[in-house]
Design goal:
39% strand; mainly beta; 74 residues; 4 strands
Length: 74
């Protein structure tokens, strides 16, 4: 099977509602999680994009486990 290129997660993508599932899904999408924290009723996952070493904030809806927003960390 061909190896597919890793891509960042996208808004609406199912990540999971617990840290273990979210970490595994983000890692599979090429974003290595450094920490989780609660922010404005959402779960914020800070992760580093594997290919570029860029830091991202991925916001996850705790009720659905879906990505609600993705922002580049300044």
């Amino acid at each position: 099977l061909p190896v597919s290129a890793m891509a960042m997660p996208t808004v609406g993508q199912m990540i999971g509602t617990n840290p273990e599932d979210a970490t595994a899904a983000l890692d599979a999408a090429g974003c290595k999680v450094s920490e989780f924290e609660a922010e404005d009723g959402k779960i914020e996952a800070k992760c580093i994009e594997t290919g570029t070493s860029k830091l991202w904030e991925v916001y996850i809806d705790p009720a659905t486990g879906k990505v609600s927003q993705i922002k580049a960390e300044d």
